[in-house]
Amino acid sequence: KDYKFIKEKWEALPFTTFVIFGNHENYDVIDERLPIAFGSSIALRISDSVYGAISGEVYDLNGKTCLCVNGANSHDIFNADGTRRRIEHESWWPQEEINDTAIIRALNNIAIYKEVDYVLTHTGGSRIASALGFSPTPSDTQLDRVLENVKFDKHYCGHYHKDVNID
């Protein structure tokens, strides 16, 4: 809820920052943002030089077409003993999961673009989750519907906090 970090750190950077939202984001605040024109698409304006992807949209970023899908399931909602670790709308948001609206938007854009240079996501889909030793989540299964239907050169995701190449 406090944009102090964005204002002090990100706004001082000499470039535009484009965000793919994941889990543990404050979606109540994100959902308050209105879509605005961003190149030939629409995005969420977070601040003067920080923009957020609308899930399922295709963006031209530095001359590369990028299909973006926000979201992931949190693995840490509960502690090992079953007690709740994260509090809804305080440290966990149900909107973080990839939903049908995002998938339909992505599939509609895939029908238009047919092929993109990059797929930018937070979670990786079932195959990547499994390759990294994680159990696929409902968001991974949702993302699979997109990945199975689009041609792309590279797929980047950050949910697993690992810097590895997966063929």
Oligomer: single chain
Shape: globular
For the biggest β-sheet, the strand order reads 1-4-3-2
According to DSSP, the number of beta strands is 8
**Helical stretch tally:** 5
Q: What is the rounded distance between the termini?
A: 38 Å
Radius of gyration: 16 Å
Q: What is the mean predicted local confidence, pLDDT?
A: 93
Low-confidence stretches: none
Look at the helices and sheets and give the structural class.
alpha/beta
- How much of the residues is beta strand, in percent? 15-25%
N-to-C order of helices and strands: HEHEEEEEHEHHE
Helix fraction bin: 10-25%
Largest sheet: 4 strands, mixed
Main features:
167 residues, alpha/beta, 4-stranded mixed beta sheet, 5 helices, 8 strands
How would you describe what is shown here?
By secondary structure, this protein is α/β, with parallel strands linked by helices. The protein contains five helices and eight strands. It has helices at 4-10, 27-30, 100-113, 126-131, 138-147, and strands spanning 17-19, 35-38, 41-47, 50-52, 58-61, 64-69, 115-121, 151-157. Strands 1-4-3-2 form a four-stranded mixed beta sheet. Helix 3 (100-113) links the parallel strand 6 and strand 7. Helix 3 (100-113) packs parallel to helix 5 (138-147).
